[in-house]
Write a structure and sequence with these properties.
19% of the residues lie in helices and 33% in strands. The protein is of the alpha+beta class. A hairpin with a 5-residue loop joins β16 (257-262) and β17.
Length: 693
């Protein structure tokens, strides 16, 4: 049966893809299509005074100097990377704690990325700096062209504020998805594109070399290599005085890895822990965080348990493990961080955060007192080399971020956490209520979600956000962009804590891997139905938004649950689940989704793959699909092909592709403001928002 557009209404045969040419990222035909799509979308969605005003409003949020300049301590200085209207690409700078406590810190600018980009004729995007411990005098700076994951690496001298050129013996790498780390001031571990056979099928380093200053990289000795079908190899050095050690890792897939200690004579000693466990080594301690049940010495430890052992004794065969944290039905371990003498745990209880302090050795725990209540607490920085200092950020849906600093004594809290920076309120939240509800999914699982809305308002435009993958938790947080563009206009905002995330520990994620993926989609659909059943909104006024893995979720909502939504925004998405492993970085996600080249696994993937399941004989809600030409993580071909197919079938589809920006979708604040304004304006128009309330 043919649809109105004349195309076959049935599922697409993946072996006969009519839009394969759109995978040619910078091909002339593909880019001509992209520009035509951008012109149409901009003409229809952005050519109004309302859009211009909204974009300017959002750029004001992004560019304001009143934002908190979050810092990372490196020795005596606090470092920050900052972008605003005067520094579009950004500046890397530092200050002292004394100055940082003041309202107007005095910043020492180390790198002005705008000036560097102008000087070199490149659209540089900051990707970070690896600074040599413990002296903090040298850095390996990573810069990306237009925001891509592939980046160049250059050595920078923090004393002279100059890049150290290759002609002066500096470390430098051309554009690649490299992995680098200091050993000492003249030696680094490096994994990069050394030529044929040096990368995995996923495009990440397969070979790790030890590179000494002044020598040819091609002659640097190889210390480790993994298999081509693995995700990546990596190597790193721990310079902690008295516990200097080198490690290498083979990432078998996205969630399984094998790790070794490198001895001084070049031998490797396997750290025999479950491959799917997360481990860390700090001084004499080994920490193991389980992702699946692990039985040791007759005791089974459930997923989400944090265990501690003496590292040297463990390598020698002892299995004397101490339980540092044990999960329960409502409580999970979100993350942890070391200070000089303590371990700090961040826990989630029904998606509400709490902090606990652990004393290594005795492994006794106590609550971290003096923190704001009803707020999401994040650890933004510690000083494990030198002190028990701790930087924390506290925020909520209606509570702007507060940066707190505290210090932990060896016996107790020597300094209660004190606010040192507060972000401004970007929207009026006085009449906004935040509630948590639970929807019942198809298999009976209770799925939590948060609702942010004006008190006592009738059903109206509602935006439902979700992700549902890679064990990433969505906790309450403040967004000036969302507040101004949606909540301040009278919209209701909802965050769904669906399975695939880590809100209830590893099992909340592992149960939806591969063949269990349908539970993610069922959870999100259950939340959508529950919102209507509770009178929060109607299907016609319910929109959904998600990016990357969340973009895949949006594609599934359009093709499998179209009756639940009035409009959808699908950003930097995976959508062709037949070809995803063949596109950049895709092979690294097989552990999450499954392998479509395996007929048994394609059998369950094909049931939901949006690109193959788009049909002309169904009615879909309006959809805006966005991506970036420079996205080398999720290939732009996913978004392009889906948009072309939906349009051919006659579905209301808009498309926009940012020529720069990488997977984040924007290389600077102006692009970010445009991207955000486009999404919110599209949703507001199609969900019946009309004039601002």
């Amino acid at each position: 049966m043919a649809g109105e557009s004349g195309v076959d209404a049935g599922n697409l045969d993946p072996e006969h893809d009519p839009y394969l040419w759109l995978e040619e990222v910078t091909g002339d035909r593909a880019m001509q299509w992209v520009r035509a799509q951008n012109d149409r979308t901009c003409t229809e969605l952005t050519a109004t005074a309302e859009f211009t005003s909204l974009q300017a409003d959002l750029l004001e949020v992004l560019d304001t100097d009143a934002r908190i300049p979050y810092v990372r301590r490196r020795g005596t200085y606090l470092y920050n990377f900052w972008r605003d209207g005067d520094h579009v690409r950004g500046i890397w700078r530092r200050t002292t704690l004394e100055s940082y406590r003041t309202e107007t810190p005095v910043w020492d600018v180390l790198i002005d990325l705008d000036a560097l980009a102008d000087r070199e004729g490149e659209n540089w995007v900051w990707k970070g700096a690896n600074v040599l411990r413990p002296g903090y005098e040298l850095a390996l700076v990573t810069l990306s062209r237009g925001g891509a994951d592939a980046a160049v690496v250059r050595e920078f001298d923090l004393r002279t504020r100059e890049f150290i050129g290759v002609d002066r013996g500096g470390f430098a790498l051309p554009e690649a998805k490299s992995d680098v780390g200091w050993i000492d001031s003249d030696t680094i571990y490096v994994g990069t594109d050394f030529g044929p056979g040096s990368l995995t099928d996923s495009g990440y380093p397969r070979v790790i070399r030890r590179w000494s200053r002044g020598t040819d990289l091609a002659e640097a000795p190889t210390v480790f290599e993994c298999k081509p079908e693995d995700v990546a190899a990596s190597g790193w050095f721990d310079p902690t005085p008295g516990f200097e050690r080198s490690f290498v890792e083979r990432a078998v897939d996205f969630y399984n890895a094998q790790r070794w200690l490198l001895t001084d004579d070049g031998d490797r000693v396997r750290i025999d822990t479950p491959e799917d466990a997360e481990i860390s080594v700090r001084k004499q301690w080994l920490l193991v965080f389980t992702r699946s049940p692990w039985t040791v010495a007759g005791t089974e430890h459930p997923p989400g348990t944090l265990l501690a052992a003496d590292f040297e004794e463990y390598l020698a065969g002892a299995r004397d493990l101490t339980v540092v944290f044990a999960p329960d039905e409502h409580t999970s371990l979100e993350t942890y961080a070391w200070t000089a003498d303590h371990l700090v745990l961040v826990t989630l209880h029904d998606v509400q955060t709490g902090l606990r302090i652990v004393n290594p050795g005795t492994w006794t725990t106590r609550p971290f007192e003096g923190l704001p209540r009803a707020a999401t607490i994040e650890i933004t920085g510690t000083d494990p080399d030198r002190s028990n200092e701790l930087f924390l950020s506290a925020s909520g849906f209606t509570q702007p971020s507060t940066l707190l600093r505290g210090c932990i004594d060896a016996d107790d809290l020597a300094e209660q956490p004190q606010p040192i920076k507060r972000a401004p309120a970007f929207f009026d939240a006085a009449d906004l209520d935040v509630t948590q509800n639970f929807a019942t999914s198809a298999d009976g699982t209770a799925v939590p979600y948060f609702v942010v809305r004006r008190a006592g308002v009738p059903a109206g435009p509602t935006l439902l956000y979700g992700y549902g993958g890679f064990e990433i938790s969505l906790t309450p947080s403040y967004s000036g962009i969302n507040g101004r563009a949606w909540l301040a206009r009278g919209g209701t905002y909802v965050v769904a804590n669906i399975r695939g995330g880590g809100e209830y520990g590893p099992a909340w994620h592992t149960q939806v891997l591969r063949a269990g993926r349908h539970k993610v989609h069922e959870d999100f659909a259950a939340v959508a139905r529950d919102l209507v059943a509770r009178g929060v909104t109607t299907p016609e006024q319910l929109g959904a938004q998600g990016g990357s893995n969340g973009g895949l979720l949006m594609g599934i909502m359009v093709t499998r649950y179209p009756e639940l939504f009035g409009a959808i925004v699908c950003q930097v998405p995976l959508l062709d689940m037949y070809r995803y492993p063949q596109l950049p970085a895709g092979a690294s996600w097989i552990a999450e989704y499954g392998d479509p080249s395996d007929p048994d696994e394609w059998a369950f993937i094909r049931e939901y793959s949006p690109y193959q399941n788009a049909r002309a004989d169904r009615t879909y809600p309006p959809i805006l699909i966005t991506t970036s030409t420079r996205d080398d993580r999720v290939h732009p071909g996913h978004a392009r092909k889906m948009a072309a197919r939906l349009q051919e079938q006659g579905h209301p589809t808009w498309y926009h592709e940012n020529i720069e920006g990488g997977h984040g979708g924007a290389a600077d604040n102006s692009q970010q403001a445009f991207k955000s304004a486009l999404a919110y304006e599209f949703l507001w128009r199609h969900l019946g928002g009309g004039a601002d309330n």
